[in-house]
Amino acid sequence: QITLKESGPKLVKPTQTLTLTCTFSGFSLSTSGVGVGWIRQPPGKALEWLALIYWDDDKRYSPSLKSRLTITKDTSKNQVVLTMTNMDPVDTATYYCAHTQGMTTSYYMDVWGKGTTVTVSS
Amino acid sequence: SYELTQPPSVSVSPGQTARITCSGDALPKKYAYWYQQKSGQAPVLVIYEDSKRPSGIPERFSGSSSGTMATLTISGAQVEDEADYHCYSTDSSGIGVFGGGTKLTVL
Q1: Which of A52, A107, A113 faces B42 most closely, judged by CB atoms?
Q2: Can you tell me the distance from the alpha carbon of A69 to that of A103, in angstroms, rounded to the nearest whole number?
Q3: Phi and psi of B61, rounded to 5°?
Q4: Residue of A107, A101, A103, A115 lying closest to A4 (CA atoms)
């Protein structure tokens, strides 16, 4: 059974850097074709895809946020970390990580964590 | 940037068929995926690769895709199907994209 859990601060100040950790079980990030993605959802708004890291360390980023995002993995710890710099109140959202599968140009998220809510406020 | 367009809302009576559309220029070459999100919960995959149903998803959920439009169909919608539905795909650069979401009301 695949499970994922997001963790990190619930409140960050504007201009600070957000670090979120996704801890997972039931799969290995060293398995071919497997990845972990991050998605966020501001209150009352649509889902927004953020980033993806593959088993072979291939990484993808949302073009609109690429300059602010970094995604890394620690295969031995079964963790994926997403950092987002220069946080702003518009980044207030629920952040999800998800098990991702497929080809590097066509992939999808099949199992999601419950999400963690992050508020950006001074 | 690539966009997927969904209607903001769809409303049906219980037992009727609900159809939610998703349009995108790359859909002739890319698969569409559908997620159900109930209030306060994480999204759940209900359709993958245009028309495949994950295990555990009721048979009343089906998907199709033709040209630049993908469609999620809920045949005989139940009150418990009331939720937000999100379509998803990838663009030509391999970047994930979600539609704006459709609120399905069943009453």
Answers
A1: A113
A2: 22
A3: -90, 125
A4: A115
Distant-in-sequence, close-in-space partners of A38: CB < 8 Å, separation ≥ 6: A20, A22, A50, A51, A52, A71, A80, A82, A95, A96, A97, A98
Phi, psi of B11 (to 5 degrees): -130, 135
pLDDT of residue A103: 83
CB A73 within 8 A of CB A14: no
Total residue length of chain B = 107
- Our CA-based measurement puts residue A60 at a distance from the nearest CA of chain B, in whole angstroms, of 7
Q: For tokens 């997927």, name the residue.
A: B4
Across the interface, of B1, B88, B96, the residue whose CB is closest to A52 is B96
CA distance B90 to B3: 10
**In this complex, how many residue pairs, one in chain A and one in chain B, have their CB atoms less than 8 Å apart?**
64
Question: Could you tell me which chain B residue has the CA closest to the CA of A46?
Answer: B100
Cα separation, B86 vs B84, in Å, equals 7
How many residues can be counted in chain A? 122
Q: Which residues of A touch B101 (CB under 8 A)?
A: 46-47
Give A28-78 pLDDT, tens digit per residue. Answer: 999 999 999 999 999 999 999 999 999 999 999 999 999 999 999 999 999
Residue B1, pLDDT above cutoff 90? no
